[in-house]
Amino acid sequence: MTASAHDPDRPGTTASTDATAPGPGASDTSAAFAPSALRAVDHSADDGLDPLPATRRALLHRTARAQAEGRAPSVVAAVVRGGRPRWFAAHGEVDGVAPGPDTQYRIGSLTKTFVAVTVLRLRDEGLLSLDDRLDVHLPGAPQAGDATIAHLLSHTAGLAAETGAPWWERTPGELRPEPEDVHGPTPRPHPPGRRFHYSNPGFATLGALVGAVRGRDWFEVLREEVLEPLGMRDTTRTPRAPHAAGWAVHPHADAVQPEPAADTGLMAPAGQLWSTAADLARFADFLSRGDERVLSAASLAEMRRPAAPPEGADWIDGYGLGMQLVRLNGRLLAGHSGSMPGFVAGLWTHPEQDVATVVLANVTSGLRAATLAADLLTTVAEREPALPAPWRPDPAPDRELLGLSGLWYWGPAATELRVGTDRELRLGSLGAATGSRFAPQADGDWTGLDGYLAGERLRVVRRPDGSVSHLDAGSFVFTRRPYEPGDPVPGGVDDAGWG
Fold first, then answer.
1. Cis peptide upstream of residue 73 (ω within 30 degrees of 0)
2. What is the average pLDDT across 204-218?
3. Residue 81: strand, helix, or coil
């Protein structure tokens, strides 16, 4: 149940650097974590991506302080970079020992991102469209109306935030045996598409959608199509040993009591899963760079784009397709937070800096897992920013495209067309490092990837003799000269020319 009205876990600013030292129970076991590689890499080679000692100390201190101040029985944290985990730490104890990278915790609404990945897989296979109405695939769904699959993924379907009583997170799923039981007495408090309204029943419905399209249980689909290819064998629907128990901490005393760990039944796609720091490190790496066996980098980038209307003019957090978005210190982080009784979790990625973080703790409230994960990511990104990829020449430049590069004019405004590798084009202001990118299409045109012209067509328009006349980008005409007589400028050019 993440990002709902009563969830206080919001990423904040980076941690202060007070001198509080970690006490007994703190452990930084990066070396032990390193063999759990995410990809086939040469661990004997120093690629310069392991945190420096001062950074490791800052990460450990921030983690230990969060556990102590948040009064969590235990917390584990991990940093991922360059395709594998680089740092792991634990503070506190599970059953009398420090938890390890393979200790399971309940991850709450991080489950939603897993479900979203399975839905995007179905879309990429052509089995559904995100613009499909829900009742196309789930006839008779009580909340269907005009809600689309994209609406459910972005929490803009207008559905209720929670089920009807009793509170689903603390009660067994047998109390909600039918799909209509998960939507409560007022399933649609808002019209679809108008506003962001976080909905746990909405993601329960997406799990049902996956099951309906695939013809088997949503978790079995997830296990076979996502978890197994990524090597996530310790991510399960119900806990297995070793796992942390969930605890509530008394608000005014250092006392604890156990929290229930109910199997939530039909609500499971909203927050049921259990996982480990090692497995979530693999998942974070996948979310950052993609894996063609599961989901492409392009589809994951689509999940990271804002899809829900912002609630304020200066938004700092938003939602994509199954991913929370946070703007923090000039960076856009993508991932998800999570909470269930006795547990909190946070996972953030920043692909531009090639860094991701994971935090898990076994406490109902107090420790802000998403805030801690964001702080750890910021610590790495600010202390050890990623090096830019080395520039390399195109081994086989397209000679015809080279002839199109250079200056073009939209009216009198100078615009530069740059040719990249794989026939990608970039059209932007002269000398600017940014601009709209265009990807080549099979028909010889290009399609805009970002900016104002995203999704629009760029065409090279030729004269009858085959020479290039102008560029047409979404009806904008770019010519080689600024407003010269005879140029195909819409509305024409004064025959007298420039005076």
1. no
2. 96
3. strand
Cα 185 to its chain centre, rounded Å, is 32
What is the SS3 assignment for 223? helix
Strand bridging mode 84-92 / 74-81:
antiparallel
Of the candidates 291, 306, 362, the residue with the CA atom closest to the CA atom of residue 90: 362
CA dist list (Å): 127 to 121, 204, 463:
9, 19, 42
Q: Which residue do the tokens 């796992």 mark?
A: 243
Cβ density class 182-201: b for 16+ within 10 Å, e for less: bbbeebbeeebbeebbbbbb
pLDDT at 313 (0 to 100): 65
Check whether 45 has a pLDDT greater than 80: no
* 329: pLDDT strictly greater than 80: yes
Q: DSSP string spanning 388-431?
A: PPPP---SS--HHHHHH-EEEEETTEEEEEEE-GGG-EEEEETT
Q: How far apart are CA 398 and CA 4, in angstroms?
A: 52
The dihedral over CA atoms of 212, 218, 223, 229, expressed in degrees to the nearest 10, equals 50
Find all residues with CB under 8 Å of 206, minimum gap 6, and list them: 115, 116, 119, 149, 152, 153, 269
| d(C-alpha 246, C-alpha 221), whole Å | 27
Q: Are 79 and 375 in contact (CB under 8 A)?
A: no
Rounded to a whole number, what is the distance in angstroms from the first to the last CA of the chain?
67
Residue-wise pLDDT for 233-283, tens only, equals: 999 999 999 999 999 999 999 999 999 999 999 999 999 999 999 999 999
More confident residue, 425 or 309: 425
Length, in residues, of the chain: 499
